[in-house]
Amino acid sequence: MKTPAPTADEQIAFLGQIERLLSEGQFVASYKYALLVALADLAVRHGSDDGRSLDIPVSALGESFIELYWRHAVPYGSGISDSGGSVLVQNTGRQAAILSVVNELRRPCGTLSVARASSHWTTALREATRLVEDMPLWKLQRLRGETLQFLYSASPMPDHIRLGPGVAANLRRFHGLVVRLAQSEWLRFIQSLPANASILGPTSDLEGFLFGSERNSLLKMVEPLLDVQHGHCFYCGRDLRAGEVDHFIPWSRYPRDLAHNFVLAHGSCNRKKSNTLAALPHLERWMQRNADYDDAVRSAGVNAGMVVDGPGTIRVAAWAYEHAASLHAETWLDSDRVEPLNDGWRSILGRPHNETPLPSSA
């Protein structure tokens, strides 16, 4: 029997606790913001919409930290990775240690996907996991005068934490809001550090640098996507000469680059779709594309340095369409036409994509 989903009052109380955590917590480094983003992301990929608790390996949080700080470890120039400049400071004291861990991977590996497959990964993951456990994990819920034990506690499983009843469901429901709040405070924290004043200058695209898609990586996806789409726009099917890489599940809903989530489209189709979920004919075609060309998309993602996780991408899609259905949202069909979302998405995406357990700790 399913555990009841959080009630409306419980959802409101949860958001209030998140607000207190961000406004009343003590932040001497950016780690706590990263931890909150990581928890929200893992809830989407592995949680459920009912009230069940969720056990998360601390190593999964360590892996998320490597990914989240991957871009932050390079010098900040004009908002473009690997341009001139200095690495942004992320700690009120000495530089955040996670940046050293990431740099030890970046130097020999270059891209995150290469790093994951390298002999250096186990050492880096072990060190990142240790940092998560030593630094933010047992401090995130601590305020100046009290501790808010509303997100997680120690799990009976070794080297795990346990999200409390309803927490994963709330993080899934309010994923966009929680991530945007955490990223906004993370950005303000970096801007507030005196050591970053001379690096940032009077104008900067700090948000894009910290949390946006890497332009060079997106460009590397163009030719492979054009090939698997046989030179046609993914949405309208017409010939495509100069296309744009589009996040099929919009970036505004899930701000993470996943290779299988990309399609190539006319700029006009991309702009018309905007932040709306695609209608079911597009969803069905996207699933078929990923099934038929999984190897090609996977290879393109590795070459572009993207996160390659086909099953995880489908779980994200299932979460996005489930959430949209609960809000009675419309989906984009073509041009200015939208249509209501019906339950057909369930049979297209299959089940149970949002109930896949996390791997055990390494």
Q: How many domains? A: 2
Strand order of the largest sheet: 1-3-2
Range of helix content? 40-55%
Radius of gyration: 20 Å
Strand-residue proportion:
5-15%
Order of helices and strands: HHEHHHHEEHHHHHEEHHHHEEH
Task: Please tell me what the overall shape is.
Answer: globular
Uncertain stretches: 78-83
Biggest sheet, in brief? 3 strands, antiparallel
Structural class: mainly alpha
Q: What gap, in angstroms, lies between the N and C termini? A: 31 Å
The chain-level mean pLDDT equals 91
**With helices defined by DSSP (H or I, 4 residues minimum), what is the helix count?**
16
Walk me through the topology.
Layout: H1 8-24, H2 31-46, E1 54-57, H3 58-69, H4 97-109, H5 112-116, H6 121-134, E2 152-154, E3 160-163, H7 167-173, H8 175-192, H9 197-200, H10 206-211, H11 215-228, E4 244-247, E5 262-265, H12 267-273, H13 280-292, H14 294-304, H15 310-326, E6 330-334, E7 337-340, H16 344-349
Antiparallel strand pairs: 1-3, 2-3, 4-5, 6-7
Helix pairs in contact: 2-3, 2-7, 2-8, 3-6, 4-6, 11-14
Summarize the structure.
With 362 residues, the protein is mainly α. It has helices at residues 8-24, 31-46, 58-69, 97-109, 112-116, 121-134, 167-173, 175-192, 197-200, 206-211, 215-228, 267-273, 280-292, 294-304, 310-326, 344-349, and strands at residues 54-57, 152-154, 160-163, 244-247, 262-265, 330-334, 337-340.
